[in-house]
Design goal:
One of its GO terms (molecular function) is oxidoreductase activity, acting on single donors with incorporation of molecular oxygen, incorporation of two atoms of oxygen. With 452 residues, the chain is of the alpha+beta class. It has a domain of 292 residues: Lipoxygenase-1, Domain 5 (Lipoxygenase-1, domain 5, Up-down Bundle), CATH 1.20.245. The protein contains 17 helices and eight strands. The protein has a four-stranded antiparallel sheet, covered by helices on one side. The protein has a two-stranded antiparallel ribbon with strand order 5-6. Strands 7-8 form a two-stranded antiparallel sheet. It is globular and about 75 Å long. The chain starts with 6 loop residues before the first helix and ends in an 11-residue tail after the last strand.
């Protein structure tokens, strides 16, 4: 930490952050290791928030749990001027990047967007008539989702598919995703403000902008995402207030209540009795629920999808798989360790994805990060309300103008040299929350729906 403070002081001042892939991955370490050409650890990575607002990587802990034939092995790796330790540090970082890539694809991306949106689509089409105002509000945010999910189940996440071929969990990929759903998914935590608070990246503060005090002031996803969240929230509140002026009008809408009951009891049957489900009994609770659904389908998905090629196309920056164990893992393989000492660069490349895996992931990320020519963007005029209700049309026009203003704000932030997490030599400008885009791989643009 540059001798700036003690660990206790860093903890007290909330300057330490953890990237935690320990508890979720640990039960699968030995199962995954029984497969060919892959490996796994439980990992914890500690970072320090420096005075200039950037995170400094401090330490990586890799853990292999005990088995019937081996005791637990655990070691902490840090940066070092010693050449052997510095190469071990590089390898440890490669393992954590592979953990992050797998968690991102299976949990943050597939589970929390593609998977979670399906029950809303099915329940809406079953329970809401096409002319129902809430169906009309949500319909643009369901475009192509069922189709793209069907394609994913046939080529990406299926048995023997691309995910199993190229990511560390291999055949346990979907099982891991399901376990993450069971342990972690909650509807009330999918709203952006609640998500930030839950992850320790913000705390509620009524006096702060957006009602949140960020743990890292220069956190591009949070800063830009909250602008989008507030814009969606304003549009949805205006829309809901037009059709549901009272609590009785919400609770008395049989179709609306049937829709939400099906989402909870059929779409999430194993969580149907959880106490955190919101009740649709006031205009406020309805607006917040709909804002959350739209945020997940549009903005959350855009944030985790359309930057994948920029950050993961160059595979050493984000390897999808780690194929070899750490050379110092006990019991140490003497021959492998000598090979590592003789040619650490070769040892690192053998840990990286194979040429076939890297090429396949690169091609898939290029496709996933691309906008189609017929893309419909959040707040775009192509999906403006078509009815003659001037109040609703005026609210949508305000939504459109607000999103255009957000684009300018983001451009300004990306040129602000004080914001070192998004501006500087070698830093990718953060554009993922810019609402509009041209076709192709642009690293920006928020489509209405989870459509790729």
């Amino acid at each position: 930490m540059g001798h700036t403070m003690t660990v206790a002081e860093a903890v007290k001042s909330k300057r330490l952050f953890m990237l935690d892939f320990h508890d979720l991955f640990l039960p699968y370490v030995h199962k995954i290791r029984a497969l060919q050409r892959t490996t796994m650890y439980g990992s914890r990575t500690i970072m320090f928030l420096t005075d200039d607002g950037t995170l400094r990587l401090l330490a990586i802990e890799l853990t292999r749990p005990a088995s019937a034939t081996m005791p637990q092995w655990r070691q902490v790796f840090t940066s070092s001027t010693d050449t052997t330790k510095s190469w071990l540090w590089r390898m440890a970082k490669s393992h954590v990047r592979a953990h992050d890539a797998g968690h991102h694809e299976l949990v943050t991306h597939w589970l929390r967007t593609h998977c979670a949106v399906e029950p809303y689509i099915l329940a809406a089409n079953r329970q809401l008539s096409e002319m129902h105002p809430i169906y009309q509000l949500l319909r643009p945010h369901f475009r192509y989702t069922m189709r793209i999910n069907a394609l994913a189940r046939s080529a990406l996440i299926n048995g023997g598919g691309i995910i199993e071929l190229t990511f560390s969990p291999q055949r346990y990929a979907m099982e891991l995703s399901s376990v993450a759903y069971d342990k972690l998914w909650r509807f009330d935590m999918e709203a952006l403000p609640a998500d930030l608070v839950r992850r320790g990246m913000a705390e509620e503060d009524p006096t702060a902008e957006h009602g949140l005090k960020l743990a890292i002031k220069d956190y591009p996803f949070a800063n830009d995402g909250l602008l989008i969240w507030d814009a969606i929230k304003g549009w949805v509140q205006a829309y809901v207030s037009r059709y549901y002026p009272t609590a009785a009008s919400v609770s008395g809408d049989a179709e609306l209540q049937a829709f939400w009951t099906e989402v909870r009891t059929e779409g999430h049957g194993d969580k149907k009795d959880a106490p955190w489900w919101p009740k649709l009994d006031t205009p406020e609770s309805l607006a917040h629920t709909l804002t959350t659904i739209i945020w997940v389908a549009a903005a959350h998905h855009a944030a985790v999808n359309f930057g994948q090629y920029d950050f993961g196309g160059y595979f050493p920056n984000r390897p999808s798989i780690a194929r070899t164990n750490m050379p110092v893992e006990e019991p140490v393989d003497a021959a492998a360790f000598e090979k590592f000492l003789d040619n650490p660069d070769q040892a690192l490349r053998e840990c990286f994805p194979s040429q076939v895996q890297a090429t396949l992931v690169m091609a898939v990320l290029d496709v996933l990060s691309s906008h189609s020519p017929d893309e419909e963007y959040l707040g775009g005029m192509e999906t403006a309300p078509w009815g003659e209700d001037t109040t609703v049309r005026a609210a949508y026009l305000r939504f459109n103008e607000q999103l255009k203003a957000v684009e300018g704000i983001i451009d300004g932030r990306n040129k602000n040299r004080k914001l070192k997490n998004r501006c500087g030599a070698g830093i990718v400008p953060y554009q993922l929350m810019k609402p509009f885009s041209q076709p192709g791989v642009t690293g920006k643009g928020i489509p209405n729906s989870t459509s790729i």
